[in-house]
Amino acid sequence: MSNLAVPKLYFDGSVVDVLWDNHEEAIRWYQKFMLWEVAQQEDWKPDPRCTQGRMTRLNWGTWLISSLSSVRLPHHFAERGTVESNIRLCWRTQNLKQLHSHFKSSGVRVTDRYKGPGDTTYFDFWATCEGIRFTAQEDKRVQEEGFVPSWIRLGVSDLSTSVQWYRNYLGMEVENDLSKDGYVIMSLHLNHQPNHKSLWVLEQLSDDAYVGKVDGPVRPICWVADREDFFHYHTFLSDSGIEVSEIGGFITRGLVSFHLYDPDGNRLNISSM
Fold it and tell me: pLDDT (tens digit, 9 = 90+) per residue, 114-129?
């Protein structure tokens, strides 16, 4: 299959959907437990149908977004109180055992430590009072305190099928095929750093894992540089039978976004300006 209709996509950080009343508390949580700082704050509405909006940029292109609306928006929403998605946003830290003990003693919900892709150790933790899941990953090379970016892990039910799907519809490239170990490392270019890549790990789900659409609060953002290409890409995906949302945001001028689901229901956001 030709992917000529797929524009060049860039990883552009992540959005965390936060309930309006929890926005300030969430900022304080990330400052306390992840040692992140506020880089930018503004009253910004993700869609003109919102009555109010708030947007806070923390470390590594991570945006907290809250909004109030009297209608259900086509794109900016999260379903809460359901199963976790199979998307794990991973953050590297130097001493995983110490961090795990600290989080546990501080009342942060955590999993046990476990081995995962890259022959390293992880644990999942749930941030803020809303229980937003992130994943900590051990990397002894990390020099600074707190967390630095790692890769994004995507759980899939059929590894070879998903690798081809991400090639065809997102233009990802295979960096390292470790199918024998249950995962494949793929890549997209990194926005604002054209000579760098973001890494995405497609990993084989267990037979009893949930598979299906999940609209979780944590969403990786893929950026399309050309606005016209963005709209053509949405049409291409829809015509190809890919489930996509309606386009939300400021259609005539401003930030526009939609989301799509991979064959296992993993949700990815696509944006342009």
Answer: 999 999 999 999 999 9
C-beta separation of 86 from 209 below 8 A:
yes
Residue 58 corresponds to which amino acid?
Answer: L
Cβ neighbors of 145 (< 8 A, separation 6 or more) are 35
User: Cα 100 to the chain's mean position, in Å?
Assistant: 22
Going by their DSSP bridges, the two strands 148-156 and 193-204 should be labelled as parallel
**Distance of alpha carbon 57 from alpha carbon 66, whole angstroms:** 12
d(CA 24, CA 192): 28
Name residues whose C-beta falls within 8 Å of residue 97's C-beta, 6 or more positions apart in sequence.
113
DSSP 244: B
Nearest alpha carbon to residue 134 among 124, 148, 122, 120: 124
CA 21 to chain centre: 22
Beta-carbon count within 10 A of 45 CB: 21
pLDDT at 1: 42
Q: H/E element holding 163? A: helix 159-170
Indicate the average pLDDT of the chain. Answer: 95
The answer to whether the CB of 135 falls within 8 A of the CB of 124 is yes
> pLDDT value at position 268?
96
